[in-house]
Amino acid sequence: MTARVIVIPNATASTTRININDALAALGSTNSGATEPPDSLNNMLWYDTANHLLKIKAETGGDWISIGYFDQSTDTFKILDDTIVATTAGATTGLIGDQATGTWQAGTGTTESLVSPAKVKAAIDALTEEPIGVGQTWQNMAGSRSVGTSYQNTTGRPIMVSICTNATNRTNFQVSTDNSTWVSVGSLAGYGNIGDEKSSQIIVPDNHYYKATGGSLSIWAELR
Fold this sequence. Notes:
This protein has three helices and 15 strands. The protein folds into three domains: about 80 residues, no CATH class; about 50 residues, no CATH class; about 90 residues, Jelly Rolls. The chain is α+β, with helices and mostly antiparallel strands. Helices cover about 15% and strands about 35% of the residues. The strands form four sheets. A four-stranded antiparallel β-sheet has the order 1-2-3-4, with no helix packed on it. Strands 8-15-10-13 form a four-stranded antiparallel β-sheet, with no helix packed on it. A four-stranded antiparallel β-sheet has the order 9-14-11-12, with no helix packed on it.
């Protein structure tokens, strides 16, 4: 269907009747056509049959504003992506659209929007660290660890460190955020029998430093 002229020019009675009928047909079909209606008016509705879009001409200028999509194969109306939700005064209150996954993961956007369960899960996964032990394994680090030397956790996740000492003097387990100021988080007191052993376990946050001071180590293992 082609768009019809809705402005009635001066003509003979029969021609005027035809033009009136055409204009009424245009109004009755929401000015349906594959191309913009000729002599279109501001605030006029037009159903664009080429793209199945209902449009309205802007109050000023020649732009057309798309209102919605009509799926002719399923006889359904579809709201367009990124349709803005607003108050009667025009203030934006939300967005009907698929905001970027990064927006959900950042968690800072305030615009109300539609979101898929997959994006909710992705946002939660991005903001939630896996619990210690998931995807980690115990590793024997005795060959690369020694008393009095500090080490840094650079795994990107918390790790657990377990040590066992065999000595008659005290062993302290310490952690630090800057490799300078240390906090004692575990202490193995000295004991009289060399054959006796004691163990201590601590959790070391990501980027923190850790070390054991004093005593003699028999076991150093890390869950990382």
